[in-house]
Amino acid sequence: MNTGDAMDAVGLTNVRKVYGKRDNEVVALDGVTTQFRRGTFTAIMGPSGSGKSTLMQCAAGLDQPTSGSVLLEGHEISELDETELTKLRRDRIGFVFQSFNLLPVLTVRQNVTLPLRLAGRPPSRSRVSTVLDQVGLAQRSNHRPSELSGGQQQRVAIARALISEPAVLFADEPTGALDTRTAQDILSLLRHSAQTAHQTIVMVTHDPVAASYADRVLFLADGRLAGALHAPTAESVAERMTHLGAFADDRALPLPRLEKTRGGQHR
Ligand SMILES: Nc1ncnc2c1ncn2[C@@H]1O[C@H](COP(=O)(O)OP(=O)(O)OP(=O)(O)O)[C@@H](O)[C@H]1O
């Protein structure tokens, strides 16, 4: 059995994912091998349709690869039954998706605490307050989702993912609906979580500045790895994306969405 390296929170070996059959076959991932070390923050980038979401779904155990191995927190996911997979995801993994999946009848606080209450591990009031404060929603804890902006709803989803302090956090465009300042705060929070709480963060993004908060950027093209950048800057990421054709059609490089302070450091 492949037990992998204990330093890796997630390890993919030769992962292939094919959707559809015969004439309708789409090869979404075509032999991807990579590792996500514990306590690291990785951004996944690539042109539309390059397989980013599929990679994340497979790495998170939400979807099974057609072939190849995914080792998640020491477990080969193809060897787990649905109950074991559900337990692994519930206890060790956090998710932030583009659709926030908030329950409209529950308040912010109730939405954030629901997964842990369902798991029989209700968080303390102070833990809830800390997380709501971290995402800038302390004043909104009794509001319902319909009373919040899109960006605020996204922050509820982020708080819900962070509250259980998951070993691995998968996030699909977590700052997509946020204004510049809030996006900076959330990205700094994610980086801080990786550095201090040794959480492993895997984030899909289209934004080179968001990616520059990560320790490493993995590039995908046509379902295959197309290189990596360590200690990325927004400029180096944007340049690489342009070469991958992600910013094609004669547009200028997208202006970094987030500002940086002097010396290239993020606030
Ligand atoms: N459920 C599915 N059934 C059939 N094809 C799929 C399915 N999910 C994804 N695909 C195809 O697999 C390929 C990779 O899709 P994926 O969503 O992983 O790309 P992506 O890089 O996340 O794209 P985007 O940046 O546009 O969100 C695409 O060609 C897509 O059409």
Task: Describe this entry's structure for a reader.
By secondary structure, the chain is an alpha/beta fold. It has a single domain (8-264), classed as Rossmann fold, CATH 3.40.50. It is built from 8 helices and 10 strands. The strands form 2 sheets. It has a 6-stranded mixed beta sheet, with helices on both faces. Strands 2-1-4-5 form a 4-stranded antiparallel beta sheet, with helices on one face. Strand 9 and strand 10 form a beta hairpin. Helix 3 runs parallel beside helix 5 (150-162). The longest helix is centred in the last third of the chain and has 18 residues, at 180-197. It binds adenosine-5'-triphosphate (ATP). Adenosine-5'-triphosphate is lined by residues 19-20, 26, 28, 46, 48-54.
* CATH topology-level fold name: Rossmann fold
Specify the helix fraction band.
25-40%
Order of helices and strands: EEEHEEHEHHHEHEHEEH
Helix- and strand-based class? alpha/beta
What general form does the structure show? Answer: globular
Task: Give the count of helical stretches.
Answer: 8
Radius of gyration: 18 Å
Which distinct ligands sit in these coordinates? adenosine-5'-triphosphate
Oligomer: single chain
| Biggest sheet overview | 6 strands, mixed
Main sheet: which strands, in order across?
A: 6-7-8-3-9-10
Number of domains: 1
The end-to-end span amounts to 44 Å
Q: What would CATH call the class?
A: Alpha Beta
Fraction in beta strands: 15-25%
Protein name: ABC transporter related protein
Pfam families: ABC_tran
Keywords: ATP-binding, Nucleotide-binding, Transport
GO molecular function: ATP binding; ATP hydrolysis activity; transmembrane transporter activity
